[in-house]
Amino acid sequence: MANIAMTGILEKMTGKDKDYRYMATSDLLNELNKENFKADADLEIKLSNIIIQQLDDVAGDVSGLAVKCLAPLVKKVSEPRVVEMTNKLCDKLLKEKDQHRDIASIAMKAIVAEVSTQSLAQSILVSILPQLIRGITAPGMSTEIKCECLDILCDVLHKFGNLMATDHELLLGALLSQLSSNQASVRKKTVSCIASLASSLSDDLLAKATIEVVQNLRNKGTKSEMTRTNIQMIGALSRAVGYRFGPHLADTVPVLINYCTSASENDEELREYSLQALESFLLRCPRDISSYCDDILHLNLEYLSYDPNFTDNMEEDTDDETLEEEEDDESANEYTDDEDVSWKVRRAAAKCLAALIVSRPEMLAKLYEEACPKLIERFKEREENVKMDVFNTFTELLQQTGNVTKGQIDINEQSPRWLLKQEVPKIVRSINRQLREKSIKTKVGAFSVLKELVVVLPDCLADQIGSLIPGIEKALSDKSSTSNLKIEALIFTRLVLASHSPSVFHPYINALSSPVLSAVAERYYKVTAEALRVCGELVRVVRPNIEGIGFDFKPFVHPIYKAIMSRLTNQDQDQEVKECAISCMGLLVSTFGDNLNAELPVCLPVLVDRMGNEITRLTAVKAFAVIASSPLRIDLSCVLEQVIAELTAFLRKANRPLRQATLGTLNSLIVAYGDKIGSSAYEVIIVELATLISDSDLHMTALALELCCTLMADRSSPVVGLAVRNKVLPQALTLIKSSLLQGQALLALQNFFASLVYSANTSFDVLLDSLLSSAKPSPQSGGVAKQALYSIAQCVAVLCLAAGDQKCSSTVQMLTEILKHDSSTNSAKQHLALLCLGEIGRRKDLSSHAHIENIVIESFQSPFEEIKSAASYALGNIAVGNLFKYLPFILDQIDNQQKKQYLLLHSLKEVIVRQSVDKAEFQDTSVEKILNLLFNHCESEEEGVRNVVAECLGKIALIEPAKLVPALKVRTTSPAAFTRATVVIAVKYSVVERPEKIDEILYPEISSFLMLIKDHDRHVRRAAVLALSTFAHNKPNLVKGLLPELLPLLYDQTVIKKELIRTVDLGPFKHIVDDGLELRKAAFECVDTLLDSCLDQVNPSSFIVPYLKSGLDDHYDVKMPCHLILSKLADKCPSAVLAVLDSLVDHLQKTINFKPKQDAVKQEVDRNEDMIRSALRTIASLHRISGGDCSLKFKNLTNEISKTPALWDKYCSIRNE
């Protein structure tokens, strides 16, 4: 049936009437696009012939449809037919007249785009390549034919370049010869053709191409347009092959720099192309270009202001007086614009400089000295597009400063932040001049620079605010301003208001508030929303504290209220505006409520109404939290009952953020207005709360328990206590057995038990009993988790303290009884009793209970490990309660009891760690005693003992730095390796995140500890690596200065050392032990930390090859951190990773294709699964780098993954994480 219809269509296609032909071709297109279309051999021939014939149809729309028919046809007919069609099209290309040639070229491209199988591609290439090469190189071919052939060849190479490896040399020769063609269009298309070919060329051929191009460049007699083409060629090559161009930089960079400086006055394009090529090198060959960076920087700075046709004789600091004259100046300069293309050079220089900034974090300090002043000066650029590029480059500089100095507090004189701070006045002066310009685009760019500046240096504009206000005012109120400009100006205003102290703005509130309030009434919703956010900040600034001293805020209250209220009551507007208006009104009421008494009955019901709407309810709940926590005690009587009822209902909703916000708001409301809410409302809330307490959502649990405590604080009502005991207590006793319980939820649970004792009708004994019995192992679930015992013990201690001294001592009595009865059978009971004694003893002095220390120390004899460790924990914590009595006892025992030493040292550690956290002091005599004792144990054979000693020393160093740092330093030269390792680990324990007084004492001595990284003993080297890791994580600024010396030594620790690998003979088989494994793992983890905190010191290129590369092929434990490092580098220094991507692919490929042995145990299989997922996660990060496609190996790797179903599923799930 189909074939009969086809015959009819084919007949009409050859008819005389153009409309018939058009309709018939259209019908054919529809037929071909049907899924079930099939053609026999005869029909195939007819179809392909007729469509090729239709291409030459005199009616353009018919031939256009015929081209569209080609795409489905290629998929539906056999290979020989497609090859035949391409041959015919090649003939037309090379022989036909112009108009037919155009359509043949379009048709050819359409076919190439549709070829999807390799075999078909191969057949087509065999037939068309020789013809295309002939079209390009044969003498007498017209320029048009050459251009068409080059266009098609470019598409073919891009898609199938790696299928024609045998023809690469022939193709390259043919194309290189065209670079010297006299026709500019031919040269231009040849450049893109060679670039498409280059990505699949072998290294030898790539070198051949580069050498030839460089040779042409060196040839002094070449015409300048040829030189330009060759420079473009170099840039295109480097963009196409990325890091593979690295080895040729030594030949090319000096030539390009030389051309830039020696080109004739009017050869701007030559300079532009040279700078573009250098930009490409910076981004794609970061490792090999490093030695030329300084030269490139100076070249960029020179050409950033290259403007030979324009003399800038205006004074630097023009102010308002010269504004009127500027308009006449513009017409005077206009004549240069058409013939003057020097702006292209300036733009290329700005972009090249941006590439330098992005790819060289280690040059930041130098860039601030040399490039920053120049960039600020160039804000006055007269060509607007170039000015935008200058702004972008400066923004890159600011962002890079932010990246490199993330998390650094103190600013020394060499740090990029400090250098930036010095430039702020200049930046603002220059930007202010831009904000007076007429151009909207310029102003938007200027605000985006200011915005980035405030993000990187939050409080840097305090002295400059006054000068910026007119610019903001003008941007917001000028008739010609666009929404885009207003939004940028408002975002900047909001950031500035949020990051500076309120008093800075008080002189300018008048000038600021009116344009912002008029922006609230704008029609475009994004402007309105942004203006409302600014209003929120403005409210905070106008009245920073309740006293409102020093600034009269009253005149601003009603204008702001009116502006917001008009938006709040308006229903038909964007959701973003509604939400901003609600939040803003919440802030306004909580800040100015005492001046809005008449307005509250109007605006509060509107907010309650918004709680009823599903879209705005979350925002409204948060707004009420802000109002409830206001120190003004706003009068909510008109809406309170309704709000509480709504909120209670929200606790049942499935929406988690809503439940979370509701718990917080209820808490604030009950704290502030508890006396006005009836106990019946409390009961309903408690019933809802009970269902939210479980270990599946600890954050929610913590909030629910906090609310419970708030409810019980009102002790007058017995109903509440009863409801809590019946509904919430059972949930709490289930929760306490969870091994996940920690942090905020655990603290909330402790407070809950304390509040429960205070609250009416809940007896202490019943509570204590239920807590202790929750530790009993149940027949269904077996024993209670170790973590749960600690949680129970902490709650028991809090409960005892809340109940008062008498109950507390009776409980201690009971616990010691449990320990006295020799119950080595029931170990859970003993375990809990010891932990409870420790927790109570830490919070309260137990010296009134005679011999409690001896009772605890008896448990050191227990056969159970956990009882022993609980006893040492208990002894240490009891000592914290009364150091004077118990510390000498512990020290004495350590000296006399050799067997119990490890446990006693743990007790001592508990004491010292608690003291260092609480900033308490020891007596001098006991410090001396402790130190002698600890230093005697530095050389212990047991690693466990050495670690405890190191932690004790580190934590004492926090309390007594002046004594300890010298004592530790002396021992870095001790002949015993274990002592050297112990003191370095001690230093590691003394470096904590918060600032401590040890920091300045330790700073000058750090190198004597960290330089032990070159010690001959591996334990000492590992200790130094771990210490460096901790420094880099907690106090990077202390070690930054040492990194140039330390990094090479650290990298050396990542290498597999043959001398550390030994074979142990186990009789029937030999076992290989690698003693260096832990050290290598630690070294890679240290580099991982350094990438977060000291990126500007690490030169990633020198680390990736060879160190990271060898790590990717190391043991399982080393590969894991290496994968993490590679992912991090792909994100932070993509250009350095791209530069060596090919060499890393093999190791990743090996990892994802590794199959464990047949007899491998489950643990090995699981580890290998983790390994594969880790490698795939890295591949996913590499995939996100732009420009990764120029690595053929990486492309093939991702193709291989997509064809392996098992890997592809994992890869997809990882990318969706």
Automatic annotation (TrEMBL):
Compositionally biased residues, Acidic residues: 313-338
Keywords: Repeat, Ubl conjugation pathway
Coiled coil: none
The keyword RNA-binding belongs to this UniProt entry's keyword annotation: no
Pfam assignment, any one: TIP120
Region (Disordered): 310-338
Family: Belongs to the CAND family.
Protein name in the entry: Cullin-associated NEDD8-dissociated protein 1
